[in-house]
Amino acid sequence: MKFSCYKNDLTEALQVIIRAVAVKPMTPILSGIYLKAENSALELQSNNFSTGIIVRIPVNAEQEGETVVGGKRLQEFINKMTDETVTFSDEDSGDLLSIKSGGKNVSLITMKPEDFPKVKIPETERSFKIATKALRKLIRKTVFAVAKDDSRPIFTGCYFEIKGNKMSLVATNAHRLAIDSATLQHNYTDCSFVVPAETLRGVMFRIDPKDIENYVKIGYATRYITFKFDNVFINSRIIEGEFPPYDRVIPKEFATNVRVDTNDFKEAIDFVALMSKETEYHTVKLNFRDNALEISSNSPDIGDATKSIEADIRGDEVDISFNVNYIADVIKVIDTDQVNIELNDRFSPAKFTEPENENYVYIATPVRS
Question: I need a surface site. Which of 33, 136, 200, 205 has the fewest CB within 10 A?
């Protein structure tokens, strides 16, 4: 095998493909990236059995062939190469892959390509299309709310729900909930399934924020979901289990309605968070009264921190405490200049929304302090 390609094309491909390289592989082959040069194209594959990714880029193939090489090391060395093109060859030794760019040369030990579990392109029962920009937004505004541990696997992914021409993504860890929706071009058969968060982060990473014209085709079956872009194919398992009826945790009425400046809120949370990190539950207290929001945190061993910002408050005064991450995470994805906060009392969940946007809802459960 011998081929050359543009370094930028290869770098972009590796940034996507590395996301399905196993971090703690059951077998060494799963730590590798499969390379196949054929017909002026290079196909790269990674597969951790939960997610499989295929990326194709153009190359100048002098000799076709296939091999497998350690994914992490390949990406690290390619990132350090500065020349415009990179040349690969295993002509001198079938057990070594020589990689040259400019005056830099590295040889990496290869693995047998026949041992690599090739990514399957399954037959999907149904499919739909969504604008890449819309899909990226849905993932960005929800995926952060999934569970970090796998004690309840169903909460480690985002719940996809399609009803007619409306698609919603829902994420929860049982203590917080994020929902966002988008309108599709056509009506589709109603369906629902849960996709691993790590798969969706990889899909989001693949989408250029400036890409406002393209679409991604999503296919699904009982056990698999696929995402097809121009040169990228992602195949992921669907998480089995019953997603809870999420709409039941959203309060119907609120005694207090607040609107604050998003940047002021973020700056205040970031400041007080420095102290909250020293507390047992990373707690911040929000005090709503007199058209002001006071944010504070107290650590018996370190001290206390406080920051007040202006707030438009309508209704009852409220004191309520949260894990600071539950507030900091949602502020990062708020796209409006102001954010709405709706509350009842210090024991009830709070609702965060964007003005003039009924599609996005975030619910946070308070800390009892």
Answer: 205
Contacts of 169 (CB under 8 A, 6+ apart): 138, 139, 141, 142, 143, 158, 159, 160, 161, 179, 180, 181
Q: Judge contact between 344 and 369, C-beta under 8 A.
A: no
Rounded CA gap, 50 and 68, in Å? 19
Query: pLDDT for 246-302, tens place per residue?
Result: 999 899 999 999 999 999 999 999 999 999 988 888 999 999 999 999 999 999 889
Cβ contact 29:41 at 8 Å:
no
Q: Tokens for 349, please give them.
A: 């969940």
- Lowest-pLDDT range of 105-109, 120-124, 126-130, 181-185: 120-124
For the record, the structure tokens of 126 come out as 């149904």
pLDDT at 121: 85
Of the listed ranges 173-187, 208-222, 304-318, the one predicted with least confidence? 208-222
Is the separation of the CB atoms in 204 and 142 below 8 Å?
no
Question: CB neighbours of 272 closer than 8 A, spacing ≥ 6?
Answer: 284, 295, 296, 297, 305, 306, 307, 324
DSSP label at residue 346: T
Report the CATH fold assignment for 126-248: DNA Polymerase III; Chain A, domain 2 (3.10.150)
CATH architecture of 250-364: Roll (3.10)
